[in-house]
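Posting this for the archive.
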Amino acid sequence: MRIHSTAIVSRKANLPPDIEVGPYSIIGDNVRIGEGTYIGAFCVIEGNTTIGKRCKIFTGAVVGSIPQDLKYKGERTFLEIGDDNIIREYCTFNSGTGEGGKTVIGNNNLFMAYSHIAHDCIIGDNCIIANGGTLAGHVTIEDRAVIGGLVAIHQFVRVGKLSIIGGCSKVVQDIPPYSTCDGHPARVYGINLIGLRRANLSSATIREISHSFKIIFNSKLSLKSAIKKLESKKDLPTEVIYLIEFIKNSSRGICRAIR
């Protein structure tokens, strides 16, 4: 172990033999960390926190602190972080709220400086949250989503996979998968064409998604009628089926198109 002499590391913490911990960092009793993980200077890792393999946590990050939720009364809650995540300077990650509550983060995500992940959030794989991105409680971010700098996302919002949200946006409703959204409040501008191409979706599938967006967001049909029209088509690709189900299961309502 390469643990700086000024770091305070609990003997009860479960650490791998190859961990590196920088100056003045603090690691609490109930922390478990995977192989190959690096902890920078002045970090605090506390609570019932599990961190996977090969993660990199930079200066000043606070990971596993109790939720900023007035309902929290000291229950046993958790933070679970997967493998290969990069957590840049001064990020703050809270544990869940309510007995057994969990904040869960997948693999291979990039959290840029000052990102905040509140209690009970669920984040998939290969996501990017840019500087100052702020998630309220119970937010779900699906795989390969990109959240721009200084974006604020309301509690219980769901952000669909392969979507991108422009910087400084205010997000109060669900963000459709495959979309490009921006604004205050955020609105749909179209499909995330670059993201879809980078995900190696076929040209035919991208055309079907684009056509579906035109029916849902740019026709004069009601949302219910647009979904019904799409569902009447045969041999829809799985991506369009997923888009339809996402919209039908939305609890906060779907972010609508720019006018």
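The two ends are 57 Å apart (CA to CA). Residues 203-217 form the longest helix (15 residues).
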